[in-house]
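Progress against Task 2.4 (sequence-to-structure conversion) is shown through the following example record, which the project officer requested during the mid-term review.
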Amino acid sequence: MTPLIHSIWLLPKTDDETLLTEVVTELSRRFDTPLFAPHLTVKGDTDLPIATLEAAIAEAAGAVASFAEEIAAIETSEAYFRSFYARFAVSAPLAQLKQRLDVQAAEAFIPHVSLLYGPVAPELKAAVADEVGRRLKGRAISFDRLCVVRSGQDIPIADWRVIATARLG
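Structure tokens generated for the chain above:
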């Protein structure tokens, strides 16, 4: 039997989630790419039991208050799940969450919220990244909850589902 794969996401507060969803939707329509919920992945693609993950997010959420982080830059890459994204600095709250939930990958942590998934020609993304950067760079995004999500690189995006949620603070 194939193990169930999950991720741990940090989600923005409702107003910021709405703003980022509008950007994801706009880019999806513009480039004919998949729609997805904007999130900051703290731990990706794990087969740990759901009960273990639920306990981990409850403990981490109890130790870290809700917080806001400024978008440091809008960047692009060739990576499917990081094709176009809002990058954040590794702040104290983000580092603390990463240490508590995914210590093995803490050194390689690139905190970001993807805004577009999929292959799009770099030159097409570059112009749009400048445009979106003018709108979003420096804007503070507030984060208020951790979620266990049925998601992963081998799970169709349309099938991703939140399983459990814990409010920060």
